[in-house]
Amino acid sequence: MKLIDMRERKCGRLTPLDYVGKGKWRCVCSCGNETIVHGVYLRSGHTQSCGCFHKEQSSQASLIDIQGKRFGRFTVLYRAGTAKRWQSTWLCRCDCGQDVVVLGMNLRAGRTKSCGCFGQDQRSMRAKDASGKTFGRLKAVYRVKNPKGIIGGRWLCQCSCGKTTAVLYKRLVNGNTKSCGCLNERKGVESPHYHPEMDDDDRTNRRLIPGYKEWTKAVYVRDDYTCQVCNHRGGNLISHHLDGYHWAKEKRILLSNGATMCTKCHKAFHKVFGTHNNERAQFILFKASYEVDAQRTLYA
Q1: Distance between CA 56 and CA 209 in Å, rounded?
Q2: 138, 180 contact by CB (below 8 A)
Q3: Would the pLDDT of 236 be above 80?
Q4: Tens of pLDDT along 9-64?
């Protein structure tokens, strides 16, 4: 069968470049894409593009007309064209006077509300004048320059203790920062964390005694960072007191009074025996019952 030369012949949006065999031609579309099309389809007009024509038609059919509508600070003027994935773009005029091309889907979803001036106004609002105002123990003196990457007004404040510190305006207004740090340094009844309903024994039991961190690490090292119940190595571990921390005060940092447990086994232990007045015998019983359950599961 004689080959019909299709090179450089315009077929809709397609222009055949060269023959690739089996009656097919490599073509370039007016949109810039290349595609392989059978010569019969080119001559009959069955295929006239790489597929872009159909997508444009579908896009036109599903186009939501938003011309003249308002979204945030934008007023839509007219359709600007089509972006990637055949998404419609619109030329919008911001209330500040600047024209910006925006995706229609971003306008409708509320993801784009201005040319950027809205965010600037918000940052400006956070930097309101606080000079002379008092926030807790702090009195704002004057505004200071922000370090790179910090957004919002920062004010140099004089604390009632005499120290000065720079604080973000929003933290002053929200009450997140009330002092230069001296509030957290107060102890006893004056401490902001003081609980009047607790007795002295409760407060003593909640404190970590000197050498506690070193004891915790020594227990891990001795047990090779392995749970002494399920034998799982690594992960989230706990240094468990065999004789309870609350009552066996003289054994709190004795290496022989500790055992490494994973968090799962540790929670299961205290769920069975409670969290106070625990004893070594309870740990031995818990470990033995775990081994029995493991053997039953193995031979089931």
Answers
A1: 73
A2: yes
A3: yes
A4: 888 888 888 888 888 989 999 888 899 998 888 888 888 888 887 776 655 545 67
Q: How many CB atoms lie within 10 A of CB 118?
A: 16
CB 212 within 8 A of CB 253: yes
The rounded distance, in Å, linking the Cα atoms of 103 and 125 is: 28
Of the chain, the end-to-end C-alpha distance in Å amounts to: 75
Cβ-count burial 42-76 (b if 16+ within 10 Å, e if not): beeeebbbbebbeeeeeeeeeeeebeeeebebbeb
Q: What amino acid occupies position 80? A: A
Band (185; pLDDT cuts 50, 70, 90): low
Alpha helices in the chain (DSSP H): 39-44, 52-61, 104-109, 117-126, 169-174, 182-185, 200-206, 212-222, 263-273, 280-299
Structure tokens at 21: 């065999």
Tokens of 193: 């964390």
Sheet hosting strand 14-21, strand order edge to edge? 14-21, 24-29, 34-38
The contacts of residue 143 (CB under 8 Å, 6+ apart) are 127, 130, 131, 153, 154, 155, 156
pLDDT digit string (tens) for 7-16?
778 888 888 8
- Global model pTM greater than 0.70: no
Which residue ranges make up each domain of the chain? 14-58, 65-119, 128-185, 205-299
